[in-house]
Amino acid sequence: MYVMSIINDMRRRKAEGSSKKDGPYDEERTQMLKREGAASHTPQQAATAAAAVAGAPSLAAIQARCRPQLGWAVGVVFLLLPFLQAYVQPPEIFWKALLAASLLFLGYHVMTFKRWSDEFPYVLRFLVCFAAMIVELLWENVMVWIVSATDMRKYDDPPGLQDNAEIALNFLAGKHALLGWFINGKWANIMHFLGCVLCLAFSVAWEQHPYSGFGVMARFSLTICFSRILRTASFMCTVLPSPRPGCYRRRFPPPPDSWTGIIWVGIRELRGFGGCNDLIFSGHGAFWSLGPLMFQTYYPNKFSTSLLWIALVQTSIRDVIDKQHYSVDMLLAVVVTWAVWSWLRWVYPESQPLPQRPEGAAADKPNALVLTLVGVGLLTAAVAVFVAKS
């Protein structure tokens, strides 16, 4: 009996040990099967599954809430209007009438907008980001003047740096007429990109996408702020010659003798045309980059996003050919702006669209703040134009 008891006890311990070994093995095998299953999914299926687990809407759900009219508006701004400017050349009264009609259209939709209660939570965020952008731009305005005035070679007319991309582009432009048109053609400009940015911001008034216009412009403003902080720090560290020799003599007066005088000139005069040194990366190139970045983030429409990226490439090339900037300036403008835009995702994540409004819900009544907020939005546009010229 004693021997049998020992044997049974050994069998029981062996069975317990086996079960303990099998437990971790089974768990590891289960995790491996899960990984294999996830790997078998397409990227779209994996993104949808991840969004479902995180509680965020999928890309397909966002696209379903986007309407096509905003994409058509981008086509009008970047295709029809440049065609009219280049080949039809309507009289000035046509453009004034078009602007007046656009403002009336916007005003009507703003006053009949149903979702002001959804926009108000983002107003303070926008105002803080907008104020930060204004402070940075004023500081940069002073720094642009200081780095130009203190350049030890400002009267020496040093030649511009060798730009291999410019050399290659000029070579390609002579090889084929179509390449020559793409490289040298006067297609889009700052006003076209600004028009698309405003279309995206204000199109929430007629429910073209499921995001807050103030939230979108908050991220826009803070991206300009931080990207230009990096830009200012860069051109203050290293002074590079302008692609156009003789810039300082043509555009700036002799600097005062004292530091206080130099700083005072920078404070009292606003300049939207940049300095007389290479500013490391293009300010208007950075602004242009925000157009396609904003659309691919908040309005995932292949036509409009692709058109904006193509326009960005063409205008960047033209800036190099016209010696407004070196090619590295344009490249860095896109890369730095894209990086800052991605870093600032927390300002207004694309995973947080506005909730869908119930069918038949009563419209929010506009109040005195409505016109003020729209005015602030239009002020953003005016500042953006000033910024993009530098």
Automatic annotation (TrEMBL):
It is a multi-pass membrane protein. It is found in: Membrane. InterPro entries: Sphingomyelin_synth-like, Sphingomyelin_synth-like_dom. GO terms for molecular function: ceramide cholinephosphotransferase activity; sphingomyelin synthase activity. Residues 1-28 are annotated as: Disordered. Residues 275-345 form the Sphingomyelin synthase-like domain. Residues 15-28 have a biased composition (Basic and acidic residues). The keyword Mitochondrion does not apply. Keywords: Lipid metabolism, Membrane, Sphingolipid metabolism, Transferase, Transmembrane, Transmembrane helix. The chain crosses the membrane at residues 70-87, 93-111, 123-147, 190-206, 328-348, 368-388. GO terms for cellular component: endoplasmic reticulum membrane; Golgi membrane; plasma membrane. Belongs to the sphingomyelin synthase family. This is Sphingomyelin synthase-like domain-containing protein. It comes from Tetradesmus obliquus.
